[in-house]
Inverse folding.
């Protein structure tokens, strides 16, 4: 394909992804998503087997496997609080026993 056609495909991918992108604080991830979509659209000669929104969902699904849910954060917070409480109890016991 010519450079002009490639540029048009990239512009279309960029515009489509940017229109549906909701993570304002992650332009780096948006750029990765645009590249992901472009590679798939370009590879299939601008006739992808999936719609662009499906490619965006696919990209995000692959990148979110390590994401933390609210439940994960709550568990981490609770574990951290347990450790803090345990450390405080140990410090109090040491202070009462005259240990340093």
């Amino acid at each position: 394909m010519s450079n002009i056609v490639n540029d048009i495909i990239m512009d279309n991918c960029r515009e489509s992804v940017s229109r549906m992108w909701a993570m304002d604080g992650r332009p780096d991830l948006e750029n990765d998503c645009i590249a992901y979509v472009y590679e798939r659209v370009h590879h299939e000669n601008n006739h992808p087997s999936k719609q662009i929104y499906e490619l965006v969902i696919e990209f995000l699904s692959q990148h979110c496997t390590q994401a933390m849910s609210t439940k994960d954060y709550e568990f981490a917070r609770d574990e951290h609080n347990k450790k803090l409480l345990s450390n405080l109890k140990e410090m109090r016991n040491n202070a009462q026993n005259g240990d340093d």
In short: The helical segments are 3-20, 27-43, 52-63, 70-97. DSSP finds four helices and no strands in the chain. The two ends are 74 Å apart (CA to CA). The mean pLDDT is 88.
